[in-house]
Specification:
binds magnesium ion; 37% helix; disordered N terminus; six-stranded mixed beta sheet; 619 residues; four-stranded mixed beta sheet; 28 strands; alpha+beta; globular
Length: 619
């Protein structure tokens, strides 16, 4: 592979970009200066974001996991991204897509959402890590060592969701991770960063969600001006309405039809939908309720009619978002289409009409985010920080005040990186500790905001109430992650906390899981070796035993006794030995003892082959 990137050599780690999607995930990297999506073994660039957990503890991702959908749907996790970084209560409020979710209380405030698979439970962070690991594997197979990785997140993701995504990347063993907003990645893929300024709308319709954002570009910096959307409006909903139509046409009673038939028909609906993006009409063979076969034709117009109500919902979201941000259509310099569902011709024409201009859609809408992420990763790793991408805070950040109020330190929509500080004092005489409660939200009372962290600044010298000066500083880095520093001014007592949201995984927990993952990987390698040696050993026992009979005359009695002993030891080892190393030694022993016997056998068979045969036959 030729590489024109000046600073990277062939063996250097390659920067990659990952679009970790609700429905599909994609990995890309920059080759010869251009972003390219990396396909997997199955030739597909899109990795379905689903994970199958086998009863023996192993897991499979993507199409491989999908093969179990028919028979083991209860062991498959899908749409995991919807649950990442949510508390158990928040997760319980999400629409479930065929997976069981239980809340596991870990301590007073941190309640982590888990998926319950019966014999084990899995956190959304762990499941996301499986997907990231599979994508990193793909990248490794294609380009070698993976370096800096940019993982995209929706612009509306809050601190907890971003932190959880980072946790997942760490758990997946990615060494250096940066987060990037999905709409910003799309704008980068269109090369918009090279322009001086502009205002761009990003209309992203994926499998499960609709996201709309407006970005402002100024002096090489993107700011998210507004984000809006519907987390329960996606291409899957199109599948559902088309499936309902098909059920009717096939004579099924929607109330009575079994889950398996619905699942199959949903798949048919999806593939008809995909084909209708290319063809004006498609036909498919289906089974009627009475089990007779029928060929149904669906036209693009019919599908368009079904999609229209969903499109109108996206229109209301777009209109409201633009109005709230005081942006007029004429202010926009471009509209970018993102997400698989925007491949439908009716979506393209709807968006054209809605924005009164043709949208940018020549970069494949389901690859555009990964490509932008790859460009950014390459830029960060190989060309320094020429480009600083600013995002804005999705929600205000602050602390709880006396009486349970919420004091904002950083307002919503503040561009990051940023910092702010405030000064507090003690409420009681001789108060030596002060509990800081870090919150995120837009409500006035602390109890209505989301709790991110609690910590105590201790060691305040005894003073009269109101005398102590407590400086609290919030600092947000370029990934949107928060560090809180609290300091007592007179003594300099300080406390620094990197805010790991209550519902994320604790650092210690992640380290433990990383260690376990590593240990498991070693176990896997050992198991594979053991299996290989067992197969090899069994065939060696057979072939040597046969040769001991057929070629007995080639051995002295002493040699024969030695070989028989070695065969016996290997035979016993194969039955009972659980360590690959010992099997390997037994195999080596037998190989060594039979080396000269083998040579003699080979010589004899060559002699037999040559004898009585025409020389020309041997050439
Ligand atoms: P996400 O961002 O949610 O992971 P994607 O951007 O990959 O999802 O979009 C997935 C959705 O796009 C699915 O509902 C899928 O059926 C739909 N989709 C993909 N290709 C097409 C197509 N050619 N025509 C219509 N819909 C499509
Ligand atoms: Mg997406």
């Amino acid at each position: 592979m030729k590489d024109s990137t000046p600073t990277s050599s062939k063996n250097a780690a390659r920067a990659i970009g990952i679009d970790l999607g609700t429905t599909n995930s994609v990995v890309a990297c920059v080759i010869d200066g251009r972003p390219q999506v990396i396909s997997g073994d199955e030739e597909s660039a899109l990795l379905p974001s689903i994970v199958y957990y086998a009863p023996d503890g192993r897991s499979l991702v993507g199409e491989q996991a999908g093969r179990f959908a028919e028979h083991n749907p209860e062991r498959i996790l899908s749409s995991v991204k919807r649950f990442v970084g949510l508390s158990a209560d928040e997760a319980a409020a999400q629409p479930l897509t065929g997976l069981a979710l239980t809340a596991v209380a870990t301590d007073d405030q941190a309640r982590i959402a888990h998926f319950d698979l019966g014999d084990r439970s899995v956190t959304p962070v762990e499941a996301s890590a499986e997907i990231l690991r599979a994508l990193a594997e793909r990248a490794r197979a294609a380009v070698g060592t993976v370096g800096l990785t940019v993982v995209t997140v929706p612009a509306y993701f809050d601190d907890a969701q971003r932190q959880a995504t980072r946790d997942a990347a760490r758990l997946a063993g990615l060494p250096q991770v940066r987060l990037l907003n999905e709409p910003t990645a799309a704008a980068l893929a269109y090369g918009l960063a090279t322009r001086k300024s502009g205002l761009y709308a990003v209309y992203d319709w994926g499998g499960g969600t609709f996201d709309f954002s407006v970005l402002r570009l100024a002096a090489g910096v993107f700011q998210v001006k507004c984000t809006s959307g519907d987390t329960a409006l996606g291409g899957d909903d199109i599948d559902r309405v088309l499936c309902a139509e098909l059920l009717g046409a096939l004579g099924f009673d929607e109330a009575k039809v079994d889950a398996r038939s619905v699942r199959k028909l949903l798949q048919t609906a999806r593939s008809l939908k995909h084909d209708l993006s290319r063809e004006p009409a498609v036909r498919a063979q289906m089974l009627r309720a009475d089990d007779t076969e029928v060929t149904l034709e669906v036209t693009r117009e019919e599908l368009d009619q079904l999609v229209l109500p969903l499109l109108l919902r996206t229109k209301r979201i777009v209109r409201r978002a633009l109005r709230d941000a005081s942006i007029e259509l004429k202010d926009l310099d471009g509209v970018i289409l993102v997400g698989g569902a925007t491949r439908m011709p009716c979506v393209i024409s709807f968006v054209t009409e809605l924005f009164q201009r043709a949208p940018l859609c020549d970069v494949d809408p389901d690859r555009v985010v990964a490509e932008g992420a790859a460009l950014q990763a390459d830029l960060l790793q190989n060309r320094g920080k020429d480009l600083l991408l600013l995002d804005v805070l999705p929600l205000s950040l602050g602390i709880e005040t006396m009486g349970g109020g919420f004091e904002r330190l950083l307002a919503r929509n503040t561009p990051v990186p940023t910092s702010a500080h405030t000064v507090f004092t003690t409420a009681a005489d001789n108060q030596t500790g002060y509990e800081l409660h870090v919150l995120q939200g837009e409500r006035e009372m602390a109890k209505n905001c989301r709790s991110l962290a609690k910590f105590v600044l201790s060691g305040i010298p005894p003073m009269k109430a109101g005398k102590a000066r407590l400086h609290v500083a919030f600092c947000i880095d370029e990934n949107g992650l928060l560090t809180v520093t609290a300091k007592e001014a007179t003594t300099g007592t300080a406390q620094v906390v990197e805010v790991v949201p209550s519902y994320g995984l604790e650092k210690a927990q992640i380290d433990k899981m990383l260690l376990e993952a590593r240990a498991l990987r070693d176990n896997d390698i050992e198991a594979r070796k053991l299996a290989e040696f067992q197969v090899h050993g069994a065939s060696l026992v057979n072939s040597v035993s046969e040769a001991l009979i057929s070629d007995a005359d080639l051995l002295t009695e002493a040699e024969r006794v030695e070989i028989v002993g070695s065969v016996e030891r290997l035979r016993r080892g194969l039955k009972s030995e659980k360590r690959s190393l010992l099997l390997e030694l037994l195999l080596e022993d037998l190989h060594a003892l039979t080396a000269s016997f083998n040579e003699r056998k080979v010589n004899r068979s060559i002699m037999q082959a040559v004898t009585g045969k025409d020389l020309r036959e041997r050439v």
